[in-house]
Amino acid sequence: MRRIDALYAIDREAKGLSDAERTALREHKAVPQLAALHAWASALKQETLASAKLGDALDYLLKQWPKLIRYVQHGQLAMDTNLAENAIRPFALGRRNWLFADTVKGAKASASLYSLVQTARANELEPYAYLCRLLTQLPAAQCVADFEALLPWNLTPAH
Length: 159
Known about the structure:
Number of strands: 0
Structural class: mainly alpha
Shape: flat
Order of helices and strands: HHHHHHHH
Distance between the termini: 43 Å
Largest sheet: none
Number of domains: 2
């Protein structure tokens, strides 16, 4: 855990930096930390039974290593998937409720509405205000540009 905490500390230090500066900082500070983590995990794997839970975890870590370290070379990438997981958590929690949708059409409508709400949130828009604007202005849309103007990423949070 200390090794992982050290990596998060580096990313906290990189907060507010440009992507290029974040990449340089990660390459300077995180790469040695990651090399030490890899060496530790490889050595521990040699001492651990493959059938043990720890052996499974170490095997998974080492097999996923190229994906784990990719964030170092790209400053715009997050170190983890926490933001994405937090965004889909309400969907996963609500999934049980959607098992009882009366029809396939109703389930698709619910999924579409949920997608609009989450996309609005991801673009820092208040979902209710965005849906009101969308449902009010959508009938007047005539061309592709009109529709694109209503996409959440084309609006500012003040709208």
